[in-house]
Hints:
The structure is a single chain. By secondary structure, the protein is mostly beta strands. It has one domain (about 45-160). The chain is built from 1 helix and 9 strands. The chain has one helix at about 105-110; strands at about 1-5, 10-20, 35-45, 50-60, 65-75, 85-95, 115-130, 130-145, 150-160. A 9-stranded antiparallel beta sheet has the order 1-2-3-4-5-6-7-8-9, with no helix packed on it. About 20% of the residues are buried.
Amino acid sequence: MLNGTAGKLYGGAAYRHFSSAAFTRINDDAxxxxxxLWSVGAGYxxxxxxxLSGAYAKNTEADTNATAHNIQLNYKGxxxxxxxxxxxxxAYRYMGQNVAFAxxxxxxxxxxxxxxxxxxxxxxxxxxxxxxxxxxxxxxxxKLDSDRDAEGLFGQVNFFF
Length: 161
């Protein structure tokens, strides 16, 4: 994995290799139990409030649903030690199930069984008390394998000690 920063611009690239019998289903001929993931990402911090980032990933061993990409615009950002701080974002996500196994920004979709999706997501975080973060996320899009509607609303409260 390589990461770097140059002023307001930041980016990175990574390669990951996985080997498991679970991966034989991602190849049409079921001859490989490997997953080879290549990814690149970059972002630009316009000022202390606005940040734009994007990423692309590909599994070179998968025959279907082998790419994932994301673009996200952030405003401000909640700081767990700063009561009253908040942040919001909007993002477009395309999460092929054979490359986006468990992306952190889509955890609520994965937990609800809504993986392999594309669509728009909005969310916000707020710090009501020091070291307490509340979060809400809404996703609206389509399933990649069936083109059926995919929608989810998720709320969470985190306590930091």
